[in-house]
Amino acid sequence: MKPIEQNICAQEPASLYRRIGGAAGVERLVERIYHWMQQLPEASDVLAMHHPDLTEVKARLRAFLSGWLGGPDLFRPAYGEPRMRRRHFAFEIDTAARDAWMACLCRAVDETVAEPALADELKSVFQAMADHLRNVRSPRDQQPLSGCGCGNPHGGHATRSPGP
Fold it and tell me: What's residue 84's pLDDT?
C-alpha cells in the first residue's frame, strides 16, 4: 500500500507589513511619527528639514514603508528608485538628527504596535535605516558613517541594535 502524501508547504513568515496591519498599520505609524515630530522639542530641527505642508511627505513615507516592510511596492511607480540615502543628502543628518527621528519613531511604534516583539523588531530595522541615513559627522558622533545598503528588513542584511 502506498502511503498518503501530505501536501505540506512551509509557510513564509509574515512580512512586517502584514504584521503591523498592512496599509492601515502603515498609515497609523506615519501619522504618529509626524505627530511626535511636531510635539517633541528635540525633533524641531528634523521637522524643519521637511516641507511645512506634510501631506506629500507623509504620502511618500507611506509609499516607501509599504514596500520596505514587505508589502506592495508603491514608491517606485510614483517616485522612482528609493535610494533613500541619496534622497537625504540635501539634509545634514548627524547623530542628533538620527536620534530625534528615532525618538518620534519609537513613540509612534509604542502607540501603534501592541506586540512587544514586533515593536522591538521594527525599532531595530528602523535604527539600521536611520544609521544608514546619517551623512555628516558632529563632534558627538561615535559611530562611523554608514555607506552600506543595510537596513532592508526583509533583504537579508544584518541590522545593528540601537546605539546609546
Answer: 87
Cell of 129: 535605516
Contact 103, 40 (CB under 8 A): yes
Q: In sequence order, which residues have a C-beta less than 8 Å from that of residue 29 and are 6 or more positions away? A: 20, 65, 108, 109, 112, 113
Distance from the Cα of residue 24 to its chain's centroid: 16
The three-point CA angle 110-115-119 to 5° equals 45
Whether the CB-CB separation of 31 and 76 falls below 8 Å is answered with: no
100 and 42 Cβ atoms separated by less than 8 Å: yes
Q: Are the C-beta atoms of 115 and 60 separated by less than 8 Å?
A: no
Please state the rounded mean pLDDT for residues 108-129. Answer: 97
**Domains, the chain, with CATH or none:** 20-133 (1.10.490.10)
Per-residue confidence band for 9, with pLDDT thresholds at 50, 70 and 90: low
**pTM for this predicted structure:** 0.78
H or E stretch at 43: none
What's the CA gap between 111 and 32, in Å, rounded?
Answer: 8
Q: Cα separation of 130 and 141, whole Å?
A: 14
